[in-house]
Design brief:
Blueprint: H1 2-27, H2 29-36, H3 40-56, H4 58-68, H5 70-88, H6 94-109, H7 111-122, H8 128-156, H9 178-199, H10 230-238, H11 241-257, H12 259-262, H13 264-270, H14 275-307, H15 311-331, H16 337-366, H17 370-399, H18 401-420
Helix pairs in contact: 1-7, 1-8, 1-9, 3-6, 3-17, 4-5, 4-7, 4-17, 5-6, 5-7, 5-9, 7-8, 7-17, 8-9, 8-14, 8-16, 11-17, 11-18, 13-14, 14-15, 14-16, 15-16, 15-18, 16-17, 17-18
Length: 433
């Protein structure tokens, strides 16, 4: 029994590291641009490249986890993104930077789909929300601490490594060593990959009394059908009404949520917030959101017991997203920065409350295709994140910041409508019924 919690903890630690590695590049993007002599467009392309491959490889790598086991695939993902992160510290120009960003998207793409499959195999249906929330909270915590940690390490590592690793920013700011930080993060990831491989197994062992492990068929049940091929999985996803609603839901959510990690610092600068406060305010919003992840796991599990499998998954998602829409709309007349941080922190909190229900829904309907099912939703969600900065910039440029928040509010409403129509009792593969 205790090993179940150990596996969840190790997987959450991997998620924390994944988000640190993902977010840290934006923290030092100015140093990278200056040291490599990049134009602003080259910097933008390099940062956005990650989301393209991250979105497109969600389903293929998720399907690999379904077929070959989440332990093998997730361990390979951790090792892969750690090596790529270390190589980021050795880039010499735009081409090599673009290449490592594309590879980072590929290597991280299967992490959450594989983790969802792992949680399903170890957790009972009434525990899936809580277990999923712990894993996902690890990623959100990494997301929140990465800006502070990375900036501190760039100064602490000055003098570590070759002489050319240290850069001196303009305006009398302290020297920084962003290259050593990437190498350090990469080495930490290799260690986490080794621990994950040693600790985690794909399935719980059968109990002494012959009872089935959590989330698995009872002995004597009909033998499992052969694994579904990749294109068969794609066909099941395309033909599933649930999956299109699932994808639309995540696309709409991420159009609005991505504002926090793309344009929010720009908005704070418009409000004349001092530079040293911008990072603190952004981390505060993301930190508040991370708290919602743990709460959401308990909420969806309790509601599943009280309302049943269908409403117990759809209701918490829809209610949380309605609250997000209200928070975005309430931001329009505000001018005080910390009040805005509080309101957007509530929005982030509600977004993260709904995330465990998202994972649990994919586990409920995915059957043996959990990785591919969550990967489908994540693909559309990350395409929404890729579209978000462009769309919101156009809206802000043409109609102002108030219109931007109205668009974000409307996007949450559309996502909430999709959530209300989800049905966790209808599996992706009808034969799983």
């Amino acid at each position: 029994m205790h090993k179940r919690y150990l596996i969840v903890a190790v997987t959450a630690a991997a998620a924390l590291l994944m988000y640190i590695d993902r977010v840290c590049v934006s923290t030092v993007a100015g140093d990278i641009q200056r040291d490599l002599g990049l134009s602003k467009w080259e910097r933008a392309y390099a940062l956005g490249a990650f989301f393209v491959t991250y979105a497109l490889f969600q389903i293929p790598v998720g399907a690999m986890a379904d077929r070959w086991g989440p332990r093998r695939v997730l361990a390979a993902c951790i090792l892969g993104w750690s090596v790529v992160t270390a190589l980021t510290g050795l880039v010499t120009g735009f081409v090599t930077l673009l290449l490592v960003r594309l590879l980072l998207g590929v290597s991280e793409a299967g992490a959450y789909p594989a983790a969802a499959g792992l949680v399903k195999r170890w957790a009972r249906p009434e525990e899936r929300g809580r277990f999923s929330s712990i894993v996902a909270a690890g990623g959100r915590i990494g997301n929140a601490i990465s800006p502070f940690l990375t900036r501190w390490l760039t100064v602490a590592f000055v003098g570590v490594g070759l002489a050319w690793w240290t850069s001196v920013p303009p305006d009398g700011q302290p020297a920084r060593n962003w290259r050593a930080v990437f190498v350090f993060y990469g080495l930490c990831g290799v260690a986490v990959a080794a621990v994950f491989w040693l600790v985690v197994s794909d399935r719980p062992p059968a109990t002494a009394g012959g009872a089935a492990p959590p989330g698995n068929p009872v002995p004597g049940a009909a033998p499992a059908r052969p694994p579904t091929g990749f294109w068969q999985r794609i066909g099941l996803l395309v033909n599933s009404r649930n999956m299109w609603l699932f994808g639309g839901l995540q696309f709409g959510v991420n159009i609005s949520w991505a504002f926090l990690i793309t344009k929010f610092p720009e908005y704070l600068e418009r409000l004349k917030v001092p530079d040293q406060e911008v990072g603190r305010m952004q981390s505060a919003v993301l930190g508040i959101g991370a708290c919602g992840m743990l709460v959401g796991g308990y909420i969806t599990d309790v509601l599943r017991r009280k309302l049943g499998p269908k409403l117990g998954r759809s209701v918490p998602i829809a209610v949380a997203l309605l609250g997000c829409a209200i928070a975005c709309a309430a931001t329009v007349p505000l001018t005080d920065p910390w009040t805005i941080v509080a309101v957007l922190g509530l929005m982030a909190f509600l977004v993260d409350i709904h995330n465990p229900a998202i994972w649990s829904f994919a586990q409920d309907v995915g059957g043996k295709n959990v990785g591919a099912s969550l990967g489908w939703g994540n693909m559309w969600g990350n395409l929404g994140a890729a579209v978000s900065p462009v769309l919101l910039t156009v809206v802000e440029d043409q109609a102002g910041w108030s219109a931007l928040f109205v668009v974000c509010s409307g996007s949450f409403v559309i996502a909430g409508v999709c959530a209300l129509m989800l049905d966790a009792t209808r599996p992706v593969d009808p034969d799983d019924a």
